[in-house]
Specification:
This protein is α/β, with parallel strands linked by helices. β6 and β7 (194-196) form a beta hairpin. It is 31% helix and 22% strand. The protein is globular. An eight-stranded mixed sheet has the order 3-2-1-4-5-8-6-7, sandwiched between helices. The chain starts with 21 loop residues before the first helix and ends with a strand. It is built from eight helices and eight strands. The protein has a single domain (7-131, 166-215), classed as Rossmann fold, CATH 3.40.50.
């Protein structure tokens, strides 16, 4: 995979950085300034644009949908089409300081393999995902006997792109088995507001989303 030209060529109309979601702001706060960043599944590049403008990163992105790629490139961002499951292996080891996967882990075919690749090509990985252990999810399964639909899990079972749901506890266990260090974790509500530490005793029940900063 050939990486696109550096972000120092960004000259087009900026994305409205003030509209960045709270969970994306938390991710941005975990990224050190003037570092090399790869945003996997970057969509239209909102986070990447914010990091470039306010953290002065050398940022790249890969996105599965061509619509997202076109929108990001239209804003001058260095984004190419790619698949997290198959294309991360083409990047050299240690190519980035931070590799980000925001709200995409559950849509990958091989979540563990994707995290392994992220930590191979980056010194740090930042992963966020919806928590399938939240009490609303549990209650819908228990009382209705149907796949849950919530503010964080908005699709019906028959049209969802999500194929590997996990709970916060599942993710923490996977990291432990992989020998991955969790440097920081944040539990969020449905609106992206911080409600505590994602490894706290009640986070798996009350958090609708979680953000983890990882290193090997």
């Amino acid at each position: 995979m050939n990486q696109a030209a550096g972000m120092n060529q960004l000259t087009t109309t900026p994305i409205n950085a003030k509209s960045i979601r709270v969970d994306l702001q938390l991710i941005a706060d975990m990224v050190a300034p003037n570092t090399r960043v790869l945003d996997v599944g970057c969509g239209e590049g909102v986070l990447l644009d914010y990091l470039y403008r306010f953290k002065h990163v050398d940022g790249r992105g890969i996105e599965l949908s061509m619509e997202g790629v076109r929108a990001a490139v239209g804003h001058g961002l260095s984004v190419i089409q790619g698949d997290a499951d198959t294309d991360l292996k083409d990047y050299p080891s240690g190519a980035f300081d931070f590799v980000i996967l925001s709200q995409t882990l559950q849509a990958t075919y091989d979540p563990k393999g994707v995290v392994e690749q992220m930590l191979r090509i980056g010194r740090h990985a930042i992963v966020s995902f919806p928590n399938f252990g939240h009490w609303r999810v549990r209650s819908q399964l228990f009382f209705k006997g149907r796949m849950p639909v919530t503010a964080s899990l908005t699709y019906q079972w028959f049209n969802t792109p999500n194929i590997h749901f996990c709970t916060i506890r599942d993710f923490v266990t996977m990291c432990r088995e992989m020998g991955v260090t969790i440097e920081r974790s944040v539990a969020l509500d449905a609106y992206g507001r911080v409600i505590g530490w994602a490894q706290g005793p009640l986070a798996n029940l009350w958090a609708e989303q979680a953000v983890f900063l990882l290193r090997k």
